[in-house]
C-alpha cells in the first residue's frame, strides 16, 4: 500500500492507495466515531458496499444509495442526504464515507461539509477519474445554470483508494479518467505525457494503472497544497475545463463523460495556446491518441455563441472576459484573458475542424 | 464609531458599531469587488435598503428581498439566492451583504459560503438579537427536522452595525435580543447581569442600547476566538438553547421569537443547575424581570417526552444522552450529560410550575 500525505490549510490528510484495502478500512479510519454513514451509488453498491460495511468494526453503520450520474448532484438529493443523516441519528462525532466516483464524492462531501456545519468524511474513489476530485477538498452540487456552482472547500479526513475497484469500470469511464491524467501530465510532466501517449486503454495492466494514478495524484496534491483556495496556480487544473464544462452543461450531464469532454477541451486549449504563443505543442499526437483510444470527438452542431455564453457562467470566468488556462509548452501552464471576438474565431474554426476530421474518419 | 477585531482561524475581521454608519459603508468595505449583492428581507428593505445602496460607490449593485422570518431559511430560498447570484453575474471577486436580522445573516451568509465555494460577505445586523449571530461565523439554513442543521462555519469579512437601525424594532424583537444579552451576562459577567436586570425594555435609551450590545459582542467574540469550531467553550453559548431550540421547532418558527424561547430555556437551565450543583442562582430575579418586561412565559401544553425527542435531534446533542449547558454560578458555566429519566422529571415539574405561575398571574 502506498501512502501520500496532503497538507491542507485546515488539516493534513493521508491518501492510501493499494489493492483490496476497502476491506481493511477499519484500520485506516482517522478517528473513532459514534456512527458511520456510507453513501454510494446504484452502480457501485452491488460491487463494493458489502465489503466496506463488513470491514467496519462499528455497531452503528448506515448506508444510502443515490442515483448514478450528475443528476445525483441536485439540491433535492443534497437535502435527502441530510434527511438520512438526521433520521439515522448522526451527530457531530459521526463519519460520512463517500464510496464511488466523483459524483458520489462531491455530493457526499458537500453533505458532510454542511451537516451540523461539518463532520468528518472519507473519500473512497472507485473510478480513475475520481483520483482527481478526491484530492483537493472541492465538494459541490450543481445548479441548473451550471456545474459545481454550490459548494465548499472541505478536505476529506482521508482518501482510501482501492485499485481493485477499478476492474469494474467500463471503457467510457477509463477514457474519462485518463483524460484528467493527460491534463495533469500536460501541466507538469512531459515524461508522464509521453508515457500516457503509449498507453493502450483497452489493455491496461494493474501496474500501469497504479503507476499512472499515483503520478496523477502526486501532481494534483502538489498543486492543491500550494494553493488550496484556487487563488493562484490551482487555476491551472482547469486546463481543458472552460470548454469542457460548457459542453457538459449544453450536451446534458451524462451522455458524454466528464473526461471525454475535457479531452475535447484540452485539444481546444492547445490550439488556442499555439495561436497565442507561437509554440509547438503535441496537438496531433494527442488527437491521434484520443482517436486511437475511441474518444468521441464528434460533437453535435452547437453555435459558438451559445458555448461562449455558457463559458461565462462558469465559476472560473471573471466578469468581463473568459480567462483560459493555456500552455507555453508541456509542463509550463499560464492563464490569459481571451476576448470574445478572438474566442469566437478560435472556437468556430476548432468546431469546423473537429467536424471535418470526424467526417473524414479522423 | 467603535471597532472590535475578531480573530477567526481563517481570517481576522472588524466589527464596526456606530450611529448612521450604514450610509458610510463604502469606506468600511474590506476589499474591492466586481459586483455587490445586498440580501435583505421584506421588513428591513423599506427602511434601510436605499441608504445602503446609495452608500455604495459601485456600478454593479444588485438587491434581493427574502420573506420575513425563519421560513426564509429554507432550502428553496437558499437555491433562489444562488439563482439570483448567478443570473446577476456574480463571480468569485463579488461581495454579498446581509442586511437584516439573524435570519438574513444566516441565509445570506450560507449562500455566500457556498456560492462558487465561498465569496466575501458582510453582516449588517438590524436587530439586537443579531449581535449574537453576526459574530462567530455560523451560517445555516433549517431542515424540516431541525433548525440550523445545514450550514458552515464561515466568518464574515466585516460586521457593520448601525445602531440607528434598532429604532424600528418592535417590543417582541427587543425582548428577543435582550434574552441573548442576558445569556451572555449569565455566562461571564455578573455585573452585566445585574445591569440588565435593571433595564426597562419599554424605555431603553440609545446609550443603554449601545453599551449593552457592545458588552454582548465582546463576550461573544472572546468566546468564539477561543473556540471557533465549537469543540470546547463555545458550547457554553448554547445555554438556554437546548430547550429553546426544541420549543422553537415544536411551536413553529415565527410565533414566539427565538429569544423569547431562549428566555424560557434559561429559566430551565438555571433550574436544572440548582438541582445538579446545590447552588443558589438568580432564578426568581430573572423570572420577575422577564415577567415585568412582558416576556411570554405561558406555553401551550406539550408532553415532556415530545420535547425530549426534539432535543435529541438538536445538533448539539450527543447520540446517547442530552448534554446541557449549566451554571455553577453566574459567570461559571459547565456542561453535563443529563440522562433521560432526570430530564423528564425536571422538565415535567418545570412545565407544571410555568403553567401554575401563569394561571396565578405570575
From TrEMBL, chains A, B:
Entry binding sites for Zn(2+): 180, 241, 258
E.C. code: 4.2.3.4
Chief site of localization: cytoplasm
Segments forming domain 3-dehydroquinate synthase N-terminal: 65-175
UniProt remark on cofactor binding: Binds 1 divalent metal cation per subunit. Can use either Co(2+) or Zn(2+).
Cofactor(s) named in the record: Co(2+); Zn(2+); NAD(+)
Pathway annotation from the record: Metabolic intermediate biosynthesis; chorismate biosynthesis; chorismate from D-erythrose 4-phosphate and phosphoenolpyruvate: step 2/7
Family: Belongs to the sugar phosphate cyclases superfamily. Dehydroquinate synthase family.
Protein name: 3-dehydroquinate synthase
Protein's organism: Lentibacillus halophilus
Amino acid at each position: 500500500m502506498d501512502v501520500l500525505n496532503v497538507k491542507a490549510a485546515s488539516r493534513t490528510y493521508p491518501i492510501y492507495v493499494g489493492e483490496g484495502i476497502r476491506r481493511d478500512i477499519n484500520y485506516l479510519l482517522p478517528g473513532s466515531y459514534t456512527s458511520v454513514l456510507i453513501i454510494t451509488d446504484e452502480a457501485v453498491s452491488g460491487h463494493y458496499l458489502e465489503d466496506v460495511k463488513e470491514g467496519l468494526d462499528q455497531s452503528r453503520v448506515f448506508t444510502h444509495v443515490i442515483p448514478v450520474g450528475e443528476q445525483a448532484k441536485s439540491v433535492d438529493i443534497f437535502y435527502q442526504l441530510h434527511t438520512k443523516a438526521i433520521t439515522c441519528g448522526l451527530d457531530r462525532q459521526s463519519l460520512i464515507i463517500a464510496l464511488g466516483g466523483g459524483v458520489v464524492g462531491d455530493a457526499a462531501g458537500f453533505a458532510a461539509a454542511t451537516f451540523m456545519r461539518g463532520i468528518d468524511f472519507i473519500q473512497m474513489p472507485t473510478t480513475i477519474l475520481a483520483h482527481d476530485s478526491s484530492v483537493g477538498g472541492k465538494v459541490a452540487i450543481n445548479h441548473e445554470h451550471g456545474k459545481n456552482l454550490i459548494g465548499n472547500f472541505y478536505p476529506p479526513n482521508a482518501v482510501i483508494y482501492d485499485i481493485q475497484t477499478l476492474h469494474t469500470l467500463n471503457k467510457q469511464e477509463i477514457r474519462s479518467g485518463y483524460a484528467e491524467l493527460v491534463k495533469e501530465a500536460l501541466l507538469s510532466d512531459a515524461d508522464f505525457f509521453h508515457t500516457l501517449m503509449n498507453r493502450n486503454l483497452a489493455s491496461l495492466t494493474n501496474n500501469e494503472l497504479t503507476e499512472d494514478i499515483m503520478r496523477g495524484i502526486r501532481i494534483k496534491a502538489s498543486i492543491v497544497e500550494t494553493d488550496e483556495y484556487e487563488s493562484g496556480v490551482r487555476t491551472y487544473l482547469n486546463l481543458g475545463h472552460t470548454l469542457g464544462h460548457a459542453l457538459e452543461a449544453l450536451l446534458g450531464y451524462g451522455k458524454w463523460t466528464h473526461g471525454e469532454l475535457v479531452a475535447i477541451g484540452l485539444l481546444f486549449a492547445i490550439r488556442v495556446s499555439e495561436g497565442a504563443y507561437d509554440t509547438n505543442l503535441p496537438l496531433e499526437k494527442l488527437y491521434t491518441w484520443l482517436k486511437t483510444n475511441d474518444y468521441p470527438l464528434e460533437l453535435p452542431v452547437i453555435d459558438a455563441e451559445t458555448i461562449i455564453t455558457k463559458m461565462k457562467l462558469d465559476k472560473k470566468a471573471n466578469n468581463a472576459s473568459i480567462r483560459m488556462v493555456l500552455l507555453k509548452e508541456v509542463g509550463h501552464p499560464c492563464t490569459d484573458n481571451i476576448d470574445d471576438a478572438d474566442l469566437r474565431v478560435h472556437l468556430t474554426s476548432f468546431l469546423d475542424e473537429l467536424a471535418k476530421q470526424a467526417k473524414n474518419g479522423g
